[in-house]
Design goal:
Layout: H1 9-21, E1 27-31, H2 38-47, E2 55-58, H3 69-85, E3 90-96, E4 101-108, E5 114-117, H4 121-124, E6 132-137, H5 140-150, H6 159-173, E7 181-184
Parallel strand pairs: 1-5, 1-6, 2-5, 6-7
Antiparallel strand pairs: 3-4
């Protein structure tokens, strides 16, 4: 699915909902840079979801630290998404950002809609051509302000490293050019 023009929040959610109705257990991949509005979009989508609410997995739950975006996102495909698509339990190790180490294992049973939200979601879902893809973006200054305010100072010393890791991912994966519903949240 591709949408040529960038959309606002509500029209994009309506478009995703229509696409999801055509699938038994839809997978929605919400990708884009830090501070673009991915979590806001995912929360609004889940709140407006018809029937039983989808589960939400945040890609950063599986990213091993400030330089592990590509590794964490890559591992989510075979460990979580592929088993779920095959009707099996999927899972992944969760990263404990406060302790800077691996934490508990999260397991999900198949059979319901899933929203995978976060930097690297398209990479995680690369083997799922049936997924509904949503790309969010916003101007750099807006994204930076949102991210730093959101995390109450915890992200401040890591912004530059994360943004560099993000740019490498975007350039190497071609994620920004993948056919997707395009959403711009910000001025």
């Amino acid at each position: 699915m591709s949408c040529g023009a960038e959309l606002a929040l509500r029209p994009a959610i309506a478009l995703v909902r229509r696409a999801a109705c055509a699938r038994r257990h839809p997978l929605v991949l919400v990708d884009g840079p830090s501070g673009a509005g991915k979590s806001t979009f995912a929360a609004s989508l889940v709140a407006d979801w018809p029937g039983g609410r989808p589960r939400v997995v945040r890609v950063d739950e599986a990213i091993p630290g400030w330089h592990g975006l590509r590794r964490g996102a890559s591992d989510l495909g075979p460990r979580l998404l592929e088993p779920l698509a095959a009707g099996r339990v999927g899972g992944f190790e969760q990263w404990d950002w406060f302790e800077d180490r691996w934490g508990t294992t999260r397991r999900l049973r198949p059979g319901t809609a899933l929203v995978l939200e976060g930097c690297g979601a398209f990479l995680a879902g690369r083997a799922r051509p049936d997924a509904i893809r949503v790309w969010l973006d916003a101007p750099l200054a807006t994204r930076r302000e949102r991210a730093l305010v959101r995390d109450a100072g915890a992200f401040d010393p890591h912004w530059d490293a994360w943004e560099a890791d993000w740019r490498r991912y975007r350039g190497q994966s071609g994620a920004a050019r993948v056919p997707a519903i395009r959403v711009r949240l910000g001025r």
